[in-house]
Amino acid sequence: MSERVIEVVAGVITDKRGRVLLSRRTPNRDMPGLWEFPGGKREHGETSEAALARELDEELGIRVTVGAPLIVVPQRYPAKRLRLDVRHVAHWEGVARGREGQALAWVAPDKLGRYSMPPADLPVVAALQTPDRYLVTPPPGDDDAAWLQSFDAALRRGVRRVQLRLPGIPGDRQEALLREAQIRCRLHGAQLLFNGPVDVALAAGAGVHLASAALQACTMRPVPAGIPLAASCHHAGDLAHAVAIDCDFVVLGPVAETASHPGEPGIGWSEFARLRETCALPIYAIGGMAPADIPEARRHGAQGIAAIRSLWSPD
Ligand SMILES: Nc1nc2c([nH]c(=O)n2[C@@H]2O[C@H](COP(=O)(O)OP(=O)(O)OP(=O)(O)O)[C@@H](O)[C@H]2O)c(=O)[nH]1
Ligand SMILES: [Mg+2]
Known about the structure:
Nucleoside Triphosphate Pyrophosphohydrolase; TIM Barrel; 8-stranded parallel β-barrel; 2 domains; alpha/beta; binds 8-OXO-guanosine-5'-triphosphate
């Protein structure tokens, strides 16, 4: 698809209580009735900051200082392509009101999911609500106690989402490690997803991470809503299938070359962003990724990074 990409900039405006401002699209525009982050199209020659300040004045009557970037979402809709550049608003002055007749709502971040929003906003909401890094566990070797100590250390360093992946480990040992990992995740308020049999994951109170073959074998969501479901994706077909079975998020890659597959180049950021356009899910970039890559990942529409080495034992 080669048609022009519409550049849109939107703001995350928060009040003193941490609530986020949403604005409702009016009946005379596309996607009427959906809630969105206030903002609009960047004009020719305008910087993103200037465009956002202008739009927020026109639409809400407030004067703003644009803050840190949150995420840039490349998104393809049936009749157009856009790049939604979302910025935090660092400071604002005035009284926000719907100057174009639109309804406004101040929404607590954990309630954003209750508002129907355009597909491009799903990754934005995920970026506000959920972790920017997803640890994939390395195999335990022959020392489970040492492995669990490293697991604890990763949680202490701030990991809050974990895929437990233990290839080649016998079932009973795997289940014991899963139980121990779940105890530790609960202590730290972290989310655990098991890359293994669904019944074993559910019995341990964990979510499910589907390897790409397991994803393709699923014809419907294998766990109830409320139990986290993720999948590993390598191409557009995987992403479409993940959407069809209603995954909560996915990982996509390899983006760069990895230590485990030397000599195999990754898909790179532009291909990542191209694949990202087609699907409205939070997507972690995997393959040679480290926390230092998170800003770049966010600029290409990723939720953040998924990694083994760099999140398990940082140098
Ligand atoms: N402002 C904003 N636009 C979004 C979001 N999500 C999203 O898909 N869009 C899409 O991005 C485009 C932005 O258009 P807009 O209608 O706000 O543009 P605008 O303020 O310049 O208005 P105008 O072109 O009607 O004068 C629309 O196609 C809109 O559906 C979002 O969170 N905020
Ligand atoms: Mg607008």
